[in-house]
Amino acid sequence: MDLVTKFREKAKARQRKVVLPEYEDKRVCQAADIIRKENIADILILTPESLDQKKQEIYAKEYAEIRKAKGMTIDEARKIMQDPLYYAAMMTRFGDCDGYVAGASHTTPEVARSAIQCLGVNEITNVVSSCFVMCVPDCPYGNDGAFIFADCGIVPDPNPRQLACIAISNAELAKQLFGITPKVAFLSFSTKGSAKAREIDKIAEALNLAKQMNPDLIIDGELQVDAAIVPEVAQIKYPGSVLGGEANVLIFPDLEAGNIGYKLVQRLGKARAIGPIIVGLNKPCSDLSRGCIVDDIIDCVAVTSLRAN
Q1: Strands laid side by side in the 272-279 sheet
Q2: Which of 109, 151, 287, 304 allows an S-S link to 276, with CB 3.0 to 4.6 Å?
Q3: 272, 166 in Cβ contact below 8 A?
Q4: Cα–Cα distance, 308 to 79 (Å, whole number)
């Protein structure tokens, strides 16, 4: 059974309530039909007509309260709660659903903004980022061809602390989704000093911070991709690495590298790319690429179900 099938089967057993607010997108409607037919989750498509007026008022009052420092008024909050995207986010905040999935017709910044404002940021890491679960066919590396790539969608140029927090959050996600010991690599164009640059100093600082924050985490860097995931190359380039070329969580140095990296593997390596999955929040939310297909939506719903407490 491949990883995607495992995700869907596990989601069936959990039967979490997941909301899809992009009711006008045909792909979303098709995905919802399949999810219901295969009983993957308790799925709900929100339309403006389906929004409960009493709930809207409750959500608006809460939203106005949490955004009052930004000058939010109750009248403005009521208008915002007419948007199914924000209504879905507040449903998740209140526990009226277990999570929501959007992004087929919204940009990543739009989805992330709704999630950050309504769900709140995890106090431990205090950094919101995104990742993709990459499932590469016929690949002996990672977790039988499965990896987590981060950050691919939110933090443009992370500082050392942000990089460390991205690593820790995505290591936890790998443990949760894959049921494995996460092995985390900070990626670079250099392997342990083979080149000198400011960018490498940033990674060295991030590595030290991550170790301080989570001493039990198996993590190393800076590493070139081949030294991170190919044991034979690791033995040549950096035989002392705690990873031994067996990394399954790959942390990119910036958003540019992460976005390019996942799309190259997806298109050239014919990999399944599940996500973007937003991490670092208090409740689950998954973003979608606007170029997503129906299966991408179904898989994001399954992952959101697995992340829900």
Answers
A1: 42-45, 17-20, 99-101, 285-286, 272-279, 129-135, 146-150, 249-251, 183-187, 218-223
A2: 287
A3: no
A4: 28
122 contact partners, CB below 8 Å, separation of at least 6: 169, 280, 281, 282
Q: Find, among 64, 89, 86, 84, the residue nearest to 75 by Cα.
A: 64
Pairwise CA distance, residues 77 & 85, whole Å: 13
Structure tokens at 127: 């950094």
Q: Which residue has the tokens 């890491």?
A: 125
Cα-based torsion angle of the residue sequence 210, 213, 214, 220 in order, rounded to the nearest 10 degrees: 10
Report pLDDT digits (tens) over 41-79.
999 999 888 899 999 999 999 999 999 889 889 999 999
Q: What distances in angstroms separate CA 265 from CA 132, 192, 260, 292, one per listed residue?
A: 11, 24, 9, 16
pLDDT of residue 195: 60
Using a 10 angstrom Cβ sphere, with 0-12 exposed, 13-18 middle and 19 or more buried, the burial of residue 103 is buried
pLDDT band at 5 (very low <50, low <70, confident <90, very high): confident
Q: pTM score, two decimals?
A: 0.87
Alpha carbon distance 198, 2 (integer Å): 41
User: Taking a C-beta distance cutoff of 8 angstroms, is the pair 225, 249 a contact?
Assistant: no
